[in-house]
Specification:
20% of the residues lie in helices and 40% in strands. With 144 residues, it is an alpha/beta fold. The chain has a single domain, classed as 2,3-Dihydroxybiphenyl 1,2-Dioxygenase, domain 1, CATH 3.10.180.10. The strands form two sheets. A four-stranded mixed sheet has the order 1-4-3-2. The longest helix is centred in the N-terminal third of the chain and has 12 residues. The radius of gyration is 16 Å and the shape is globular.
């Protein structure tokens, strides 16, 4: 197999509209695709009848697409499929973690734990208003 690249990162969310709005306002993502009540395709991909979803894809100039997906009518336990809100996280590089935390908090995000220092810089986890998790990363100027 030859890997051709990273196409997108997908996060399951609990509130589609809040999540899309948050990532657009907080980080400047641009909405490039949106489909509400997608059924046939998601049923085929997940192997689940009666499943539907709201799906958005957003872009930044220098990275893979961010896909936000709210599953509807799944009737499945979170362990059965990658359906539950907050399954995974997206890591976003910022200039200053403290400043970024203040800005995302003003948009409804909640910090999880403390800003953590590691050899390469600092990071903090947050949960945005729609339910997905993100990590804000600030790297040292010298790379370590």
């Amino acid at each position: 197999m030859k890997l051709m690249g990273l196409d997108h990162i997908s996060l399951a969310v609990a509130d589609f509209d809040l999540s899309v709005d948050f990532y657009r306002r907080a980080f400047g993502y641009q909405l490039v695709f949106e489909e509400r009540d997608m059924a046939r395709e998601i049923q085929s991909m997940m192997g689940m009848e009666r499943l539907s979803c709201h799906l958005a894809q957003l872009t930044l100039a220098d990275g893979p697409r961010l896909e936000l997906i709210q599953f509807l009518h799944s009737g499945a336990s979170p362990q059965a499929r990658p359906l539950s809100a907050g399954s995974g996280h997206v890591g976003l590089t910022v200039e200053n973690v403290d400043e970024a935390l203040r800005e995302v908090a003003a948009l409804g995000a909640v910090a999880i734990g403390d800003v953590t220092v590691f050899p390469e810089g600092r990071s903090a986890y947050c949960r945005e208003p729609g339910g997905s998790f993100l990590e804000l990363l600030e790297f040292n100027q010298d790379g370590g």
